[in-house]
Design goal:
Strand order of the largest sheet: 7-8-9
Shape: elongated
Strand content: 15-25%
Structural class: alpha+beta
Radius of gyration: 28 Å
Largest sheet: 3 strands, mixed
Number of strands: 12
């Protein structure tokens, strides 16, 4: 869940569901005229833990924080005190706090695990400690990345430096993969040349404490990452959860060492390596998507479609293209269909207004191209017929930019058909199939079809 929740009305309890987490919000409004934004919270066995706070803090009737999770609440509230999660200053502050926490805690875990591993001759424990050292280095990279991403646009980078967040997330993922390979090598060596492991109460206590610390870091990084929509922090949270699993395996192997007759320490080290590699792969995939280019978020696309279509004289939108230059740094363009017989000065003023409205609401620089559309009865009727023929081929196909140019012997039907990526028919097959159906309506019709691809998820209904 991203962003914040605004609630109108009297004091109520609002359940908000998220995969694996049950969010619960309880609040009391001060004024309906100026609705505040409230903290999102989730319930664990030890109470209600605040995830993030935006804007003015409301009067809260039911709110509880206990133990270590109170620290999460205080840290995130301090990071987001300015309210806007897309603000470069806020994101830089969040990155600094998250990086500092990661460096400090991972350095302590590294020292504790390596000392315990050397004392017990445990390859798995040492490997787990070295993994924490790589996490500390990754935190340094994340810290640097957020500071670079917060720089203002300049002549060399007119779109800003926001993608540095994605780059640092990718570097963290690659570091995780590299560490997984190194841990795997050590584990294979321990399997081929096993050494006796003597677990002590101190080493077991260190491992148990490390699990608790990493679990806390997972909640902290995930909460902060979701609050500001940061892929780098989400990757760090995933890595922390992977560390919980890997350290749990090491703890189990330490408890069983001396009680089994096979090299469990090497097997535990190999299990740790596989978990690290899995986490690194998933984190790399998540951070590569925004760098390579991904579709607009479906909810955002639907909201933009709803906002634009709420205005009079806007008949439809299509060819929506979205460029993500980092959180809070996006550009967008699309075509807006308008009546061909309308007042173009008034429509142009409306288009300018919509561009400003999108900038204010979504922080997206927008360029809108006006497409004049003839709305007479014959054109509208033919458009609906052709649209129905396209849907007969496949319900996902849509048309736009439909126009007619009549002639003495035939009538051109000129339009674009929107085809999803990976469609079962080739572009040529789509043209041939649709042309045949149109000519079946009348031999005078000559279709001129341009096949388009969508840059948003077609399930949103936005073209």
């Amino acid at each position: 869940m991203k962003g914040w929740v605004q609630v109108y009305g009297k004091t109520e309890r609002f359940p908000i569901h998220d995969p694996g987490v049950n969010f619960l919000l309880t609040c009391k409004l001060v004024s309906r005229a100026s609705p505040p934004a409230f903290p999102l919270t989730f319930r664990l066995p030890n109470g209600i833990i605040s995830l993030c706070v935006f804007g003015r803090f409301p009067a809260v009737e039911f709110f509880e924080n206990r133990g270590a999770f109170l620290v999460i609440h205080l840290l995130i509230r301090a990071c987001l005190k300015d309210g806007d999660p897309n603000s470069p200053a806020v994101r830089r502050r969040c990155g600094t706090v998250a990086g500092g926490v990661g460096i400090g805690l991972n350095a302590l875990l590294f020292l504790g695990k390596v000392i315990a591993g050397l004392a017990t001759a445990s390859v798995a424990m040492i490997a787990d400690g070295v993994n924490n050292l790589s996490d500390a280095a990754s935190s340094v990279v994340t810290l640097i990345g957020f500071r670079l991403a917060g720089q203002e646009a300049d002549a060399e980078h007119p779109f800003g430096h926001g993608r540095m967040e994605y780059v640092t997330g990718l570097i963290v993922a690659l570091a995780i993969l590299l560490m997984g390979v190194e841990v795997g090598k050590s584990a294979v060596d321990a399997l081929l040349h096993p050494q006796p492991v003597q677990a002590s109460a101190l080493s077991l206590a260190i491992l148990a404490a490390a699990i608790a610390v990493k679990l806390w870091m997972f909640f902290f990084n995930r909460a902060l990452g979701r609050a500001i929509g940061s892929q780098a922090m989400e990757a760090t949270a995933a890595d922390s959860l992977s560390d919980v699993a890997s350290t749990s395996v090491v703890l189990l192997s330490a408890l069983l060492s001396g009680r089994v007759n096979f090299p469990i320490d090497g097997l535990a080290g190999l299990a740790v390596a596989l978990l690290i590699l899995k986490t690194g792969w998933e984190a790399a995939r998540e951070t590569l998507d925004p760098l390579l280019g991904r579709p607009m978020d479906p909810e955002l696309a639907q909201d933009i479609d709803k906002l634009v279509m709420s205005h009079n004289n806007i008949l439809g939108i299509h060819d929506l293209v979205y460029h993500d230059y980092g959180p809070g740094r996006a550009m967008m363009s699309f075509h807006a269909e308008v009546p061909a017989d309308g007042d173009f000065l008034a429509i142009h003023d409306l288009i300018d207004h919509i561009e400003r409205e999108l900038k204010t609401k979504h922080h997206i620089e927008t360029v809108i191209h006006m497409d004049p559309v003839v709305c007479d009865e014959r054109t509208s009727q033919l458009r609906e017929q052709v649209a129905a023929l396209a849907r007969e081929i496949d319900p996902v196909l849509t048309i736009h930019d439909f126009r007619i140019t009549p002639g003495p012997e035939h009538t051109n039907l000129i339009f674009d058909v929107l085809v999803p990526h990976g469609f079962r028919l080739t572009d040529s097959q789509v043209r041939t199939e649709l042309s045949g159906r149109i000519k079946a309506l009348s031999e005078r019709y000559f279709p001129v079809i341009q096949v388009d691809r969508s840059y948003v998820d077609l399930r949103t209904g936005v073209k």
